[in-house]
Amino acid sequence: MKGRFALLLSAAAGVVALMAVALYINARESVLLEQAALQDVVVATRDILANRAIDESVVQMSKVPRKYLAPGAITAINEAIGRIAAVPIPKGAQVAGTALQEGGREALAFSVPRGMRAVTLAVNDVSGVGGLIRVGNFVDIVGIFEYGVPSGSVGGQMTFTQEKTETLTIAQNVQVVAVGREFAGSAPAPKKASEAPPTPEEAAAASAAAEKGATQNATLLVSPAQVQELVLAQHVGTLFMSLRSNLDAGQVVELGRLDPPTLLKVPTPVPLKPRPQGPTWREYRGARDR
Prior knowledge:
The protein is an alpha+beta fold. It has five helices and ten strands; from the N terminus they run H-E-E-E-E-E-E-E-E-H-E-H-E-H-H.
């Protein structure tokens, strides 16, 4: 009798243990299946530098097991587009919300390649191709210079003989990296959905201000040696930009100096005609400081 009772007790204990093991396995299986479930996540398609604007060219959607989902990872691509990388994001890494900041932050330095420099030239509607130059365009820089041999002074003003006027193409195939305060890495700060649209008067004033500001200066990507040349040329002459076709990017045309007698094919000097002057560096700097 006792042996039968012990046998039944052992069998019951075995059933309980088997049920406990089955419950544990089912629980672990559920956890593992949940961790193995694929989750949509935004990943970088290439190395993203800090202060780089996020667009469709640098991120894409991917799927990873939920177990490997990074803390704070963004799971919808529209939550990343238009924002700015606050820190470098390596290729293939999940994009976390903590690695991004809102648009409107400025960091042109991160768009300047190693060994190059960004230099700003003052322009107006004439010297700046009618204000039609845009970020990413390529331009040539042409200067007009007047010089001569000092011969004395009259009323405290230096006089010159053998005065000459020449035009010279100083640089070709120069990339425009900013126009005014707009550059490729900048983005307007996002508006809140509850923000009221501007009135017609506000929109007209903003458009007029933007149009006026767009022709004040352009920032170019050049070598350190070209920085010296352009700064000096802007100081002693008048500079103009000519807009290149995108199909001509990289092409350089050999051009010499040109003066009025050569242009008009006459042997005698040509009297100088008063012409509108673009803003000098001193005038531009004074207007900026005001």
